[in-house]
Structures are given as C-alpha cells and as structure tokens.
Specification:
This protein is an all-alpha fold. It has ten helices and no strands.
Length: 187
C-alpha cells in the first residue's frame, strides 16, 4: 500500500468517525432517529463502504460501521459486525455494550444479558458493563443479580450511583430495600 493510499484511508476513517460522533449526539435513546442524524450516519456508512479490503474487514472499521448501524436503529445488521469485533478483540468494551444495546431493543433481553456476561468474562473490571448488566437484570426481574452487579459497578466507580436516580431500567426494583441500600450514600 502506498503512503498516499494509507493517508486516504486514514482520512476516510477519521471523517466517518466524526460523522458517527456527531450523529450519535443527535440521537435520543429509544426515540426515532432525527433526519439530521440519519444523514450524518448514512454519510459515515457511505465513506466506510469506499474503503477497500483488507482495511474494510479490520475490527476498527467494523466497529465504526456497527456503531453507525446501531445508532440508525438497524440493530440486526449492527449485531453481526459487533460480534465479529468481539471475536477478534474480546477486550473491546464498546462492542459488548453495542451488542447488548441492540439485543435489548430487539426484545431479546436474555440474549442481551448473556452478551454482557460474556463481556464481563473478557473485561471483568469494567463498571459500565456491570451497570448495564444490572439494568437488564432489573428489567428481567432478577433482583438479587441486578443489585450485585450494580454494587460492583458502584464499587469500581462511584459515579454510577448517581445514574441510578434517572435510569428507567431500575424502575422495577427501585423500591426494593436492597436497591435502596446499594444506591444510598453512606457518610
């Protein structure tokens, strides 16, 4: 590969990353994708499609494409790419989170739980994986497991305690005394 080709591919990847980041800023969770975000995310996908092999098949490129598809609500398409990323790089936190996100929105909550559990096997000290798994377990009615993972997330990074106040996924267990104890600040 020539230096010019390498520079062009790097520029395309940077542009696509920028479009995805901007598009994601405009997307609200569980709301229809605004047209402005859709245009940015579709532009990113168009740029990524221009990248020839073997760069197109690299985990970093697949991750970008998966994130764009996830943000567009094309969850099934995103799943395949994100799964390929985790198979190549099991430590890729964003891929595990993205797969869980997609599976939850596809109504496959137990699969989402399983994915985050596998993600924790690969990266056990990631508080955001514990937190998201806690959310999904709460929705699935598995109170004790939800609280255990929430407690681990908070133990690793106390900032996760503050997120519980506004997280609707905890509504099913919000009044449970174990949840109240796990989220209370002790001085």
């Amino acid at each position: 590969m020539t230096a010019m080709t390498r520079l062009r591919r790097q520029a395309i990847l940077r542009q696509a990353t920028g479009y995805i980041e901007l598009g994601e800023l405009l997307v609200e969770t569980d709301r229809p994708v605004p047209e402005s975000a859709r245009r940015l995310l579709e532009r990113a996908l168009g740029l990524l499609a221009e990248i020839p092999e073997p760069t197109r098949s690299l985990p970093g490129t697949k991750m970008l494409e998966g994130e764009a598809l996830r943000a567009l609500g094309r969850w099934e398409d995103a799943l395949h790419l994100l799964q390929a990323v985790t198979e190549h790089d099991p430590d890729k936190l964003e891929a595990w989170l993205g797969m869980g996100w997609c599976l939850k929105r596809l109504g496959r909550l137990e699969d989402a739980i399983g994915v985050l559990e596998r993600g924790l096997e690969a990266t056990p000290q990631q508080p955001i994986l514990h937190y998201n798994l806690s959310c999904y377990l709460s929705l699935g009615g598995r109170v004790q497991a939800a609280i255990e993972h929430l407690a681990r997330a908070i133990a690793i990074d106390g900032r996760f305690r503050d997120l519980t106040e506004v997280e609707p996924d905890f509504d099913p267990i919000r009044t449970d005394p174990r949840f109240v104890a796990a989220t209370s600040v002790t001085v």
